[in-house]
Amino acid sequence: MQPDAIYAICGFDDIPNRRARGFDLMVVDDEGNQRPWPIVVIRWSKKVLGYVNKCPHNSVKLDWERNEFLDPYGVRLMCGKHGSTFELSTGRCVEGQCKGRVLTPIALTVLDGEICVVGVRLVEDDAPSDA
Ligand code: FES
User: Fold this and answer.
1) How far is the CA of 123 from the centre of ligand 1 (A)?
2) Is 0.70 topped by the overall pTM?
3) Among residues of the chain, what percentage have pLDDT more than 90?
4) How far is CA 90 from each of CA 76, 100, 106, rounded to the nearest angstrom?
């Protein structure tokens, strides 16, 4: 187990400023089971924010059109099914079906121009043999 492993998922410049992109990753849980872990990553100027891509009220992905995560003003995340909107900085639903509930935040960092996921154990396509 590598609790402090860092996984690069894309280049910082692969997500344009003020846009969001989804990633369908797999994680290994504490029991060693693999499970899907869809996430959304938002780039906002020099910052990146991320949440599990699952609405807190009925567990569907937010982007009913692939990678369409933002509301028409481009300032909140939006559920494509219901139009509920979520604050970018907190993940809190401020309008719609799940008002008051929050998206699950994920830990991200930027290293050498790469957006990286930290704090989880991902299933990697090319797992190192020394693990
Ligand atoms: S699935 Fe929860 S607001 Fe749409």
Assistant:
1) 28
2) yes
3) 84
4) 10, 11, 11
Determine if ligand 1 sits within 6 Å of the CB of residue 5.
Answer: no
Q: Are 4 and 118 in contact (CB under 8 A)?
A: yes
Q: Which atom of ligand 1 is nearest to the CA of 93?
A: 3
Give the pair of three-digit tokens for residue 10: 């894309």
Cα–Cα distance between 61 and 15 in angstroms, integer? 19
Q: What is the DSSP string of 60-74?
A: --S-SSTT--B-TTS
Go through the domains of the chain in sequence order and give each one's CATH number.
17-108 (2.102.10.10)
For residues 73 and 44, the answer to whether their CB atoms sit within 8 Å is: no
Pocket lining: 79 vs ligand 1, CB cutoff 6 Å: yes
- Considering Cα of 65, then 38, then 111, then 71, what sign does the dihedral take? positive
